[in-house]
């Protein structure tokens, strides 16, 4: 069980989508991520750079023939941060459900 | 993002509804990766057509027809299998080992193969013993029908298993986001 740790960097919608996609993958091609998320090349590059700077994503650039091919994968730190973030979201959800359940009881006591 | 690695209390202004939406988004994106490696629906129909073609060729009792049609049908089924695999390779994504199908999925696929073969052999042998015409064609048609029905069910089962493994990976409770 991971420690819950809310991560503002991962929580941004586009980055959450990228990290979630990569969490289920060993690695994914740049074009695959771009097409699945419906992003432009520049938007995806920007978000991947941010995640790479944070040490969450590893970018691999290689050539297949004369064509450059870029793929991305979650680093160990990125995977851990993602798991902790998911646990934090779970915790927030559980707390909100608990509070919603407790509220009518408090109001009934008045 | 802070540099501290200390666990923080979950509650940074994010509401329960926002957390549920984020968890649903996580599951949706993981489902996209899983879907990329599953068998497409048309594959079952193609394989079923190949099975029926082999059965019909066998019942023709014509050696020339059998010598041409059976290898052709087998080749077509092999081409279909390659065509099903190649787009998955071209998509350039590899499912994480923690999410890959486990022994239960392999068991389900093996069970489906045994069921289809059992239906084909059982019906063909019974019809042949009862003196029906075209027993192998009818047996293969029944097996093909089973494949077309059971194939997508097995696909759905494998998808569910993989999604559940992905959920375990991120410690999601089964009700997370309500989109399991």
Nutshell version of this structure?
With 110 residues, chain A is of the alpha+beta class. In chain A, 64% of the residues lie in helices and 19% in strands. Chain A has helices at residues 8-11, 13-23, 30-37, 41-53, 76-109, and strands spanning 25-29, 57-64, 67-74.
Percent range of helical residues of chain A: 55-70%
Order of strands, main sheet of chain A, comes to 1-3-2
The CATH class of chain A, by name, is Mainly Alpha
Strand content of chain B: under 5%
Number of helices of chain A: 5
- pLDDT under 50 segments of chain B (min length 5)? 1-10, 172-180
User: Which fold name fills CATH's third level, the topology of chain A?
Assistant: Arc Repressor Mutant, subunit A
Class by helix and strand content of chain B?
Answer: mainly alpha
CATH superfamily of chain A: Winged helix-like DNA-binding domain superfamily/Winged helix DNA-binding domain
Evaluate the radius of gyration of chain A: 19 Å
Task: Quote the beta fraction of chain A.
Answer: 15-25%
Write down the overall mean pLDDT of chain B: 84
Structural class of chain A: alpha+beta
Q: How many domains make up the coordinates of chain A?
A: 1
User: Termini of chain B, distance in Å?
Assistant: 30 Å
Short key terms for the protein model shown above:
heterodimer; A: 110 residues; alpha+beta; Arc Repressor Mutant, subunit A; 3-stranded antiparallel beta sheet; 5 helices; elongated; B: 180 residues; mainly alpha; 73% helix; disordered N terminus; disordered C terminus
Please tell me about this protein's structure.
The complex is a heterodimer of chains A (110) and B (180). Chain A has helices at 8-11, 13-23, 30-37, 41-53, 76-109, and strands spanning 25-29, 57-64, 67-74. Chain A has 110 residues and is an alpha+beta fold. Chain A has one domain (8-109): Winged helix-like DNA-binding domain superfamily/Winged helix DNA-binding domain (Arc Repressor Mutant, subunit A, Orthogonal Bundle). Chain A starts with 7 loop residues before the first helix and ends with a helix. Chain B is mostly helical. Chain B has one domain (36-169). Chain B is built from 5 helices and 1 strand; from the N terminus they run αααβαα. In chain B, α2 packs antiparallel against α3, α2 runs antiparallel to α5 (135-169) and α4 packs antiparallel against α5 (135-169). Chain B is elongated. Residues 1-10 and 172-180 of chain B have low confidence and may be disordered. Classes of the chains: A alpha+beta (110), B mainly alpha (180). Chains A and B meet through α1, α2, β1, α3 and α5 of A and α1 and β1 of B. β1 (25-29) of chain A pairs antiparallel with β1 of chain B.
